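Annual report, structural modelling task.

Input specification for the NAP complex:
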Amino acid sequence: MNQTLNVAIIGGGFAGIGTAIRLKQKGIEDFALLERGTSAGGTWRDNTYPGAACDIPSRLYSYSFAPNPDWSHTYSGSAEILGYIEHMVEAFDLRPHFRFGHNVTDVRWNDATSLWDITFDAQPTMHARTVVMASGPLANVSFPAIRGLDTFTGHKIHSARWDHDYDFTDKKVAVIGTGASGVQIVPELVKVAKSVKVFQRTPGWALPRVNFETRQTTKDLYRRFPTVQTAARKAWFWGHESVALGVVWNSPLTRVVEAVGKVHLRRQVADPWLRRQLTPDFRAGCKRLLMTSEFYPALQKDNCTLVTWPIATLAPDGIRTVEGIEHQADVIVFATGFDVCKTGTPVPIRGRGGRVLADEWSGGAKAYKSVSVAGYPNMYFTFGPNSGPGHSSALVYMEAQIDYLVDAISFALSRDVVLDVREDRQRDYNDDLQKRLQHTTWNSGCSSWYLTEDGFNATMFPGFATQYVGQLKAVDYDDYAVSEYRPLSRSPR
Ligand code: NAP
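The model returned the following structure:
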């Protein structure tokens, strides 16, 4: 097998697949999708918990270059999204490019060959002229550092590694976590379990999510007239852009978002004490907004209880809270999020002269326009530092990154050059970015997975999606040191 590739894409989820499609459309076929799992889909392959769905409308949470007229609802469930991903793999003939069971353990720039050396835990080393890091921020699950975690003798399930063999019928269930995953799981569990106790540490801002079924006539219309579908996508795009002023920036409009959240809470929860327990004490948008019309009603079912006392320890039969009560449970569901890499790298990465990216990012990750990092030539990141949207679809941002990096790759391959972003451009970009972040809701004083423990925001982009996409519209090669590709001792092909 050819072990020296033009492009190695690390990760076979949305970002990796999008990159592969765009490379093919540019006529670049010598690439591989290196995937540690046994199938494609990334986070949507892993997140199969009951109720798993996307809280961004499907028309916008999809690629514009792979429109799907058949979305069944405004907001799709995880199985349908995974189906869309699998459809893209077949439709764009990506299967031959997949290398499953390739768990990358090290990525290292070789100054002598001008190639990236990629090593795996159980596969021979590969070499590539370009590496695209598409491993995604939400790949590794996070169990909280709660005392007694191993003492619990019942069943433990993490939201992102659901155990479909476990039967919740008539079980006593404890759910830890009320983030985007927790609020989707609880309404499903209350339908089957004997009891559900929801352990909430911090109440989040919830907004209504109204999900309509798409009529067949609408699907037919989209199929016959793709421009109508494009127009629908644009309408969703601008609808989301319009809420950025209140969600991204800590502004008077944030109060409007909070007012909508309070009205939603008041309409769905009659009991003032429960309402108080569910009322957030931070600015809306600081943590991810919860889009749900089902969570509050589920909490008020006879078999559901909200527990707001902090957890002291897990015990053999359940969860003990600080006031001394032990809550018995047959199973604990950990909806406690992901181990998001904000200060290191998902795998060890060494660049020019052996520099180590994890060291450079130890105070917080920084990149140029979230895509390139100085000293790491011909390497590109999808969903890299400061590329997260608070108000729009991650796929809109990802599509912009992909088009940018595919243009750069195509340029470098066709001219036989190496591209390394200039340190000064990267520094100026980040200085400006961090200044702008100070005025955002994310930096307004709450803890979230967006921030490092020191409060550094290496995750979100402080602006409109239009601005983010605009800055990636075209590669300015003045931003890069361009050197000739001169492999001295290339590995045998
Ligand atoms: P998350 O937002 O990080 O929420 C984790 C939850 O667990 C929080 O409620 C957190 O409380 C709680 N928690 C963590 N450690 C705890 C502890 N020691 N004791 C008690 N509670 C603890 O994780 P997530 O809900 O899985 O969502 C992660 C991200 O996945 C989201 O932000 C989103 O980007 C993505 N997601 C998206 C969708 C979608 O619809 N598009 C759906 C699911 C997930 P605190 O708030 O107090 O930390």
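Residues 3-140+339-484 form a domain with the FAD/NAD(P)-binding domain fold (CATH 3.50.50.60).
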